[in-house]
Design brief:
With about 575 residues, this protein is of the alpha/beta class. It has helices spanning about 20-40, 45-70, 80-105, 135-140, 185-195, 215-220, 220-225, 235-245, 260-265, 270-280, 305-320, 345-355, 365-375, 410, 430-440, 460-475, 485-490, 550-560, 565-575; strands at about 115-120, 125-130, 145-150, 175-180, 200-205, 230-235, 250-255, 285-290, 295-300, 330-335, 380-385, 395-400, 420-425, 450-455, 480, 495, 510, 515, 525-530.
Length: about 575
């Protein structure tokens, strides 16, 4: 296969040749010939294929971690490499939760909702979908996950909104999946959602930044490829546009940037921008997408002790430094109460963590340019750690004016290890929360994920507890975390992941549609995850954890097949951390 023109203008490690257009034609043709067979395929066979994929990812695990480290400029065995084992553990969980739902369908019932289904005062139906089983209750003690349904869904009819693609008459479809460039587990999550929740066969076009994972994905997902239900493709703009507009491709899904989405839907350049302003689409197919966000962390004031400040500072820092900041759910704006007497002490504790945390290779293209744009707009930006040689310093821009709606920190997702802080004047805690929600909803770009941090003592005041629940209800975000990094909203598999619904194509923001959602709700609005203010033992993603790598590797094995012996094996490195 010959190398085509159009490679991205950044270096790649051993780039894979572009897929010729003739091969794409053959792939789409074959998928169309197999799409009805996929819908008709027995559930026993599909469950067996999921189990084979689990075995496949277990088999490639060490090679996956090594390749991910090579691509990101990190070292196997390091705390950075532990993240790659966590990604593999997430893949195993997604596959296992999918098999669980299919097993329920095979038994003639809709996927089981493991917790209570309740109705809020306004009539909105809420299903508790995490913890799923006793393993979750032990390993993630005190953590819960809920899916809030769209208004109009009735509790008595909730089951009617589940697994609708498994009912008679559902047509087969071919989907184009444009894979994420930052994490391999996102690619698998997107594929599983298309294959199993929506029952569509798929052609996966790998992101050039992530394409070296393609051969490993092909090995692990070989049963789907052998059956004619999945094809992989490589390339750039030419391949994307050829597939996107192909008459044999019915739908699209992507994890990526708003700019790429707009270029596909409206066309590139000035012409495309003019079409978008007119609402004139050149692609009218259903196109679901997850496109990032300026994600806020709302810090609720309370009677924090010194150990609370240190813990939450490391919690905030760990969210930023994960994957060198190349995460759609990284915290981007910390929102504090201006009158809180501990506000600046929390910032100083955060600075201390950043000073002590080694910088990481900024492997994603254009990261240095993006960081420079923010620093140019805010010369007071504080930078921690050495730059140079492919590294960027951790960057904090504090004391933003919350009334400056046009601030770059509010309007643009900084795709690098950078975040900011602002403080809101308020006479009371309920007023602060009301104003913080307004800032998050009306000023910050995107609606993907939001986090609130609140001390349990604060919630003992009924007025504060009520204000917090109003905030959770009023935040227009696809995932709202209370004392939990929204990462957990992706990791459970049973909560939904995606933007808050309602964005039109010409103002797509964080996207449209959801992935994961392995209980297969057709009308989810958002997910809410909750957890303890502090977790003991120390979470494995904290930079100070001493056993990151061993713990993450064992967690991946546990998610593959939970057992008492594997749980016991986790406890030792967890307690030593």
């Amino acid at each position: 296969m010959g190398r085509k023109t159009g490679r991205p203008a950044f270096p790649l490690l051993d780039p894979i040749p572009f897929t010729p257009l003739a091969d794409l034609e053959a792939a789409v043709s074959e998928l169309n010939s197999r799409k009805e067979a996929w819908v008709a395929l027995g559930l026993d066979t599909k469950i067996r294929m999921l189990q084979q994929a689990q075995a496949g990812f277990e088999r490639i695990g060490s090679r996956w971690v090594a390749e991910s480290c090579r691509r990101k400029g990190t070292t196997v065995g390091s705390w950075e490499a532990a993240e790659e084992w966590m990604a593999l553990g997430n893949i195993q969980r997604i596959l296992r939760m999918t098999a669980r739902s299919l097993t329920d369908l095979r038994r003639g019932r809709t996927p089981r909702i493991p917790g209570p289904v309740t109705v809020r005062g306004d009539g909105q139906v809420v299903a508790q979908v995490f913890p799923v089983d006793h393993w979750d209750r032990v390993l993630y003690s005190g953590c819960t996950g809920e899916v809030w349904m769209e208004p109009g869904v009735e509790r008595a009819r909730l089951a009617d909104t589940q697994a609708v693609t498994y009912r008679e008459g559902h047509p087969g479809k071919v989907a184009l999946v444009l894979g994420a460039g930052n994490w391999g587990n996102l690619i698998v999550g997107d594929l599983v959602s298309k294959l199993f929740v929506e029952q569509q066969v798929a052609v996966l076009k790998l992101n050039p930044v992530n394409e070296r994972l393609g051969p490993l994905l092909a090995e692990a997902l070989e049963p789907f490829i052998r059956g004619g239900f999945l094809r992989l493709a490589y390339g750039g703009v030419e391949q994307v546009l050829h597939l996107a507009h192909h008459r044999g491709v019915d739908e699209l899904h992507m994890t990526g940037s708003e700019a790429v989405y707009n270029a596909i839907v409206f066309g590139p350049g000035e012409e495309g921008r003019a079409r978008r302003q007119r609402g004139e689409r050149i692609l009218t197919k259903r196109f679901t997408a997850e496109l990032g966000s300026v994600s806020p962390v709302i810090v609720v004031p309370g009677p924090w002790q010194d150990q609370d400040l240190r813990y939450q500072a490391e919690h905030l820092a760990s969210m930023l430094i994960a994957n060198a900041g190349f995460n759609c759910l990284s915290p981007r704006v910390i929102v504090q109460h201006a009158q809180w007497n501990l506000r600046r002490r929390l910032l100083e504790a955060l600075r201390d963590v950043l000073r002590r945390t080694p910088t990481r290779p900024a492997y994603y293209p254009n990261a240095a340019r993006i960081q420079a744009e923010f620093v140019e707009a805010h010369p007071q930006a504080e930078q921690f750690g050495a730059g140079g040689e492919g590294h960027l310093p951790w960057t904090l821009i504090a004391e933003l004016d919350p009334s400056r709606a046009d601030d770059i920190c509010f309007t643009t997702e900084p795709w690098c290890g950078l975040f900011s802080e602002t403080a809101i004047e308020a006479a009371s805690l309920p007023e602060f929360l009301e104003k913080a929600v307004a800032l998050a909803n009306d000023t910050l770009a995107g609606t993907l994920s939001c986090n609130l941090v609140v001390h349990p003592a604060t919630l003992r005041d009924p007025s504060c507890a009520a204000a917090l629940e109003r905030a959770v209800a009023n935040l227009r975000y696809g995932t709202v975390g209370v004392n939990r990094w929204p990462l957990w909203g992706y990791a459970t598999g049973t909560t939904t992941w995606g933007a808050f619904p309602g964005h039109p194509p010409q103002d797509i923001q964080s996207g449209t549609g959801v992935v994961n959602n392995l209980l297969m709700f057709s009308r989810p609005q958002k997910s809410v995850i909750r957890g303890p203010f502090r977790i003991l033992p120390r979470p494995p993603f904290f930079p100070s954890h001493l056993q990151h790598y061993a713990l993450a590797e064992r967690l991946a094995g546990f998610e593959r097949s939970p057992s008492l012996s594997r749980l016991t094996g986790i406890l030792w490195p967890a307690l030593r951390g």
